Amino acid sequence: MNELITLTAAELAAKLAAGEVSAVEATRAHLDRITEVDGQYGAFLATDPAASIAAAERIDSRRAAGESLGELAGVPLAIKDVLVTTDMPATSGSRMLEGYRSPFDATAVAKARAAGLVNIGKTNMDEFAMGSSTENSAFGPTRNQWDPSRVPGGSGGGSAVAVGAFEAPLALGSDTGGSIRQPAALTGTVGAKPTYGGVSRYGAIALASSLDQIGPCARTVLDTALLHDVIAGHDHHDSTSLDFAWPSMAAAARSGADPSSLAGMRIGVVKELMLDGLQAGVNERFQEALALAEAQGAEIVEVDAPHFEYAVAAYYLILPAEASSNLAKYDSVRFGLRVAPADGGTVESVMSETRAVGFGAEVKRRIILGTYALSAGYYDAYYGSAQKVRTLIQRDFAAAFDRVDVIASPTAPTTAWHLGSHRGDPMQDYLNDATTIPANLAGIPGLSLPIGLAAEDGLPVGLQLMAPAFEDARVYRAGAALEALISDRDGGPFWARVPSADRTTIREAGN
Amino acid sequence: MPETTAAAGAPANGEITAETVQHLAGLARIALTDAEVESLTSELGSILTSIAKVGEVATPEIPATSHPIPLSNVTREDVIADVLTLDEALTNAPDAADGMFRVSSILGEEQ
Predict the structure, then answer these.
(1) Do B47 and A367 touch (CB under 8 A)?
(2) Which residue of A has its CA nearest to B27?
(3) Residues A215 and A325 in one domain
(4) Are residues A324 and A295 in the same domain?
(5) What ipTM, to 2 d.p.?
(6) In a mutagenesis test of the A interface, which of B1, B13, B29, B107 is the best target, namely the one with the most A β-carbons within 10 Å?
């Protein structure tokens, strides 16, 4: 295995800047890795080696010409297929958009390109980001690099495995109810959901517009922060994007890398996020991580959030309602699939047939549910009530953040489960999202980082940190400190423990 | 407009029946098979039972939150920018003719 792929993005960027490695070499090393292992993992839906190499060559020429480039210039970037790209297709994991190619780049993609990052491929996801396992992709599941018989979480399983299996040092994801953080937890990687509006949603294929947020994925907190800095900022294309002078998340991560920065930090533990179904090994690792923080002088404070138990219910009304509206655009007229009935049909029957064939079971389920929740006679009881619950959850967070600086919880109640094992009961997956959903409802930032392996199954456990809106830097500062403590405990970075092929090489690189 | 209410064909207690699902599928323009209608009827019923609990705490004095970070009156300069060319707009169309999206007949024979 080429050692370039085990470098963190920060290390690779330093070598690129110093001229020790070219962008073409870095890109080729990752493309080779994708060729070598992605048949096993299915993290990517599309790659275009010629396009990626051409982009890398342009970075190398600009650097050779003495141009001043971004800190991450020449570093490969995997892009969740929910983001539209001019150089590769964008399907959002759906047959409906098979072969679709956008005439413009999503803003997060455009910002990444402007910073010199190289698009290495589009990553797999649950169809239209509806799911928690990536099994709902119309193009087949992604498999967890820790154990290919298990799911990587979802919806952004592709981006999480891409970084976790060394197919890319960085990836973009989207998080509507946990789709960045939960896959990060299940694959032992890092992922962050920024404050709502912190990153433009322009060019992100919409699921639920009041919840969707684009964010970064990587193997380390610092790498995640570096990518966050690249994509954050106001965009006039997205009227919900925030016009705010964001501090550097990378600077926050660097300042947190000394674990003594935890001294005096008040870390809240929300009773209601310690779910009934919490796996014993997940709880053990979580309590250990809290103890490590406490030993550095952090104060662990138990806090109440009495309305969090209503979060999943509110979410599964708001999301389907907004999704049923957003997905009305797949009408077989302007883009996407068109399927005509045998008799030719009217535009309306063509539309119904197209949506019958183009959407998978979970998408249909949520559209029908959303149509119901928005319909006359039920609107107030369902959608209206869910929006009130949203207010109550925001108030719970506000009360909690009066007493603590950050909130910590297990990112997901369990480790990765076997493919196919949750089939048949949609409510089971919905309830598993209870730890990540509150942050989306409230619009606050959240980050997941790996904190060890569960004793009973040897699979990664993630810890989620949340902070008030606009305080994204706090989760990076605290996250970097916890990451350093875990690394000290284990004698090396967590990502180096992945039992993939070439384990020895990875271990050496990590130590 | 009675045809836009999902309540059409639904019992007053909000219970999900196969007729309700058929009606919703019509509103959502998805041609469901009989098997899909059957499974959705039971799944939707169980999901709604779980999520109806929002009503327990959504009392009249609680304001609704439609957007997590309140913003108001977001405006921009009224200038033309970033528009697609005709070719770009049509490039992903399933069918196009004479610079326009081409669709199937709007009206059925009986109309």
Answers:
(1) no
(2) A371
(3) no
(4) no
(5) 0.91
(6) B29
**Is A155 tagged catalytic?**
yes
Q: Clarify whether A385 is annotated catalytic.
A: no
What are the extents of the domains in chain B? 1-57
From first to last of its 511 residues, chain A has per-residue pLDDT tens of: 689 999 999 999 999 999 999 999 999 999 999 999 999 999 999 999 999 999 999 999 999 999 999 999 999 999 999 999 999 999 999 999 999 999 999 999 999 999 999 999 999 999 999 999 999 999 999 999 999 999 999 999 999 999 999 999 999 999 999 999 999 999 999 999 999 999 999 999 999 999 999 999 999 999 999 999 999 999 999 999 999 999 999 999 999 999 999 999 999 999 999 998 899 999 999 999 999 999 999 999 999 999 999 999 999 999 999 999 999 999 999 999 999 888 888 999 999 999 999 999 999 999 999 999 998 888 888 999 999 999 999 999 999 999 999 999 999 999 999 999 987 677 877 888 999 999 999 999 999 999 999 999 999 999 999 999 999 999 999 999 999 999 999 999 999 998 864 544 454 554 4
| A103, A210, A345 member nearest B67 (Cβ) | A210
User: Is A271 a catalytic site residue?
Assistant: no
Domain count of chain A?
2
Which of residues A361, A388, A415 is at a domain's end?
A: A388
The domain in which residue A335 lies consists of 309-388
| Domain at A128, CATH number | 3.90.1300.10
Contact by Cβ (8 Å): A448, A185: yes
Same domain as A467, residue A332: no
Residues A184 and A227 in one domain: yes
The set of residues, in sequence order, having a beta carbon less than 8 Å from that of A127 and lying 6+ positions away, is: A92, A93, A94, A136, A137, A138, A359, A360, A362, A363
CA distances from B56 to A278, A376, A382, B43, B48 (A): 25, 20, 11, 22, 14
One domain for residues A29 and A139: yes
pTM listed for this prediction: 0.96
A196 inside 8 A of chain B by CB: yes
Residues A266 and A320 in one domain: no
8 A C-beta contact, residue A412 and residue A450: no
Residue A121 exposed, middle or buried by CB count within 10 Å (0-12, 13-18, 19+): buried
Closest by CA to A56, choosing from A30, A38, A18, A33, is: A30
Are residues A240 and A363 part of one domain?
no
- A420 and A302 share a domain? yes
